[in-house]
Amino acid sequence: MSEKSQQQTQWHAITNRDVEGRGWDKTEYPFGRLPTDIKEQLPDNLWALSHSPTGMCVKFTTDSTAIHARWELASVELGEANFPVTCYSGLDLYAKDQNVWRWAGCVANQVKDQHPTVTLIDKLDGKQREYMLYLPARNPVLSLEIGVDHDSQYQLIPPRPQRPIVFYGSSIVHGAYASHAGIIHPSLLGRWLDRPVINLGFSGCAKMELGIAECLGELTSCLYVIDPLPNMNGPMVEEFAEPFLNALINAQPQTPILMVEDRTMTNAWIQPHVLAEHRSARRAYRRVYDELKNSRHTNLWYLKGDELLGTDSEASLDGSHPSDLGYMRMAQCLLPVIKDILGS
């Protein structure tokens, strides 16, 4: 974006209270995902991952012919092997068309340092539209501004008061390998269901820690989607799943919980040991579900993982993490189940 264009742009600062998808006010970073009072209970690597604004978005209306953004990133690492820069550090723009959210633009290859200033889209028709801008999936954001034409109208839309769907899980929930933030399945489902979403995915660190369960229990949600098995084996599930779920049930006894099995790795068909690991973790997970369902919690649901990525082995780049196609398939598998739960 040229200096002249910047001078002809009206800039609007976005605070943490303007974004949807935040669960707590007191966080270490402006757009952090966990409260500061839990820091000492968590491993350092999990706590560090909580600083990212994964799943958060800001909504606004404007008739501007171009939409710009500038933001400050906390980490000099702009991307990594399993997180492209566009998703790790970039912004992702959607626009509403006849009441349907459609992708409009992202930062592509424009993030070169910790202080990007980019044009997300230009040469628009100047019609008044509603927009949704997703924050980066991984890199913590210290500040954010949205830019529109100097003579255009702009109106921030505050976060909705509806109870959100809360997703807890591994790097898959966090968005690893997604090309842009809006294609991660919790974000897709949020748009399809017209619901706020809180994304608590933690790459490599979702192991059903009791402190996380207590945090989840502080949230007033319409549904918890619990999906940590990609980070856990059978013995870990045996040890941690029941205390985790019990803590959540005790805190929010009326809120439905959907337990999601791990996706089947796309090359598991040719690796017997991988299938054996899936079966071990799933047996333990299902046993916990059956015991809780039979004893005390009728509002508990279960989704098998066999077909979350499809059955053609084409929906992952490394066998484990979904590609954009994989995230779409996961969202499509979850959609009817969540509709059924919320409808009930």
Give the topology:
Blueprint: H1 3-7, E1 9-14, H2 44-49, E2 57-62, E3 67-73, H3 85-88, E4 92-97, E5 100-106, E6 117-121, E7 129-134, E8 141-149, E9 154-157, E10 165-169, H4 171-174, H5 185-193, E11 197-201, H6 210-216, E12 223-227, H7 234-251, E13 257-260, H8 272-295, E14 300-303, H9 324-343
Parallel strand pairs: 10-11, 10-12, 12-13, 13-14
Antiparallel strand pairs: 1-8, 2-7, 2-9, 3-6, 3-8, 4-5, 4-7
CATH structural architecture of the largest domain: 3-Layer(aba) Sandwich
- Given the structure, what is the number of helices? 9
How much helix, percentage-wise, in residues?
25-40%
Largest β sheet strand count, sense and barrel closure: 5 strands, antiparallel
| Radius of gyration over all CA atoms, rounded | 20 Å
Order of helices and strands: HEHEEHEEEEEEEHHEHEHEHEH
Q: Let me know the CATH homologous superfamily of the largest domain.
A: SGNH hydrolase
Unreliable spans are none
Number of strands: 14
**What would the principal axes of the Cα set say about the shape?**
globular
